[in-house]
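Could you help me review a protein record that somebody else here produced? This is what I was given.
***
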Amino acid sequence: MKVMFGIWLLWGLATAAKQPNILFILTDDQGKLIGGLDHMPKLQENLIQKGATYPKHYCSVALCCPSRANLWTGRMPHNTNITDVGLPYGGYPKVVSAGWNDNYLPIWMQEAGYDTYYVGKLWNSHTEENYNNPYAKGFNGSDFLLDPWTYRYYNAKMTRNGETPVSYAGQYSTDVIKNKSLGFLDEALANPDRPWMLTIAPNAPHSNGSQDAVTGATWFGEPEYAPRHAQLFKDYKIPRDESFNKIIDGAVGWVADLPTLTEEEINYIDEFQRCRLRALQAVDEMIGELFEKLDKAGVLNNTYIFFSTDNGYHIGQHAMQPGKNCGYETDINIPLFIRGPGIPQNQTIDVVTSHTDLAPTFLSIAGTTRDGLDGKKIPTTIDAGNADNKSEHVAIEYWGIAVPEGIYGYKSDNDSQPGNSYRNNTYKGLRLVSDDYSLYYSVWCTNDKEFYNLKVPNAHQSYTIANRHLGQIIPRLDALMMVLKSCNGDSCREPWRQLHPKGYVNNLADALDSGFDEFYANQPKVSFSECSLGYHIYAEGPQEFNIYGSGSTAKRSEGEYVSKSHRCKTWERYTKLGCRLLMQETSVPITPIPRTSDAAIHTNMITHFKNDTTFGQSAQTCSTDIIRTEIVNSGMHPLPLLEI
């Protein structure tokens, strides 16, 4: 009996010591407001009703690859510098060259003792030519969708564990992904002493990669679905709410110039959305089978299950053709549901969270942490929603163009829309959500600004918070955005503390005290000098903000950023030329420009650029006159040209 008791005790201790498993389901372009969650019964039954809902969850950038980089690294897009779906500003080759293939969540989870598995879409521009150059690190087992076949629902190509890509032509891709996921789950369950993390990333309900058989033209058309779902949702129509087919009051840029949708276009996007809902049914069936397997294996109660998407989606709202890329609620407010040990069932947790917080949350489940992340662990108790110090902000950012989808987006012949895209879509945004206010504020690269009060629509100019009018509110938002637009670590998590280090101000309501009016009126403002297609620090205006009570400005330390593109922003003496040259190189340490007297600054800068080999041969061969001209023209230092 004593022997048996000892065996059971040891078994119990081993079971208790095992970290929980993690199942993460990540859809593509689903969104929350028009995402079809109500039409996914298995998701509702197994996860939403048995777990917690986070209605104030956001992505920081409404585009696939940058959002996934944000999620997998726990760093803001301006800190990953992955800002597009392909080169030169994004995609898998940029992920590799920026060093993130060696420094992201899957590797960290393995270091924490987890077996990691992945099925589906990992990155954009992850192709059958570059999938093994190098292979994506950090997985015990993987089966990746590869471009240009990722969005071909009946013509997927995938690579399993780095092997030669295999075509699944004629098979529905979500069903293929389901079968592969169940196989990896069996593999994980075969090692009961090892915790595991399985991520499943189907391409649904992303638009289908479509091509005109006659002209060869390509565009993103309505997603394809399995034949068994063809009869569903035939009478469905996109909700005709106040935003449907209505131009945004106060919009700027291309959004303000949109025509309203015609009846023909509305009929088309209704069917487009029906196709999205049908495509999600195979995902929902997969969810049901995954839960069934976890339950039968006896591990469901020791497994955290997360469900989310990379970014949101608009379709008819604000008179827009199908698409994303905007800072509006349709595009950035996305689903997050969590079920697992200690998570309240069928409850809403009223806290503001973002994709930047997911990596710290997964690491916390694994019993570890990591320095240098911009996010923080997501609260999992109802009481967190009632806390006085809960976060209220999400930084939003985007670089490049907006691409309308569907046949009417594709066929647009608007002169300002060359290449089926809207230019000048680079912006910085700020979303503030509390019990008392719900605001969105943005500054576009054209230096146009938007302000929307989502709690009291159409009351923008007469709006007040704590009896303070818009004229006092906007300077506070400008200052907060100044911190967040280039934040790192603590400054991303606690931006008000950067402005008020003594901790007296923790939210917008605190900042609206009239005693701070002069301080905020004199703050530098977010601005752009050009509409860049990617993140270039020289195009993004002032980088320093005033600190209350100190009489000084905030300066970011030399060691604050991990890659050369980030280090470029930490030293105010780097010129536009220096930044451009720096961005061409890989991540290696750089030597700061020596701080000397103002009279010698230009000389030292020129010497530094010409002699520092980390800038490459192009810097060493630049003439002194070119470098000197760039120093002055960049505006990085207000000295006249010096004779050198």
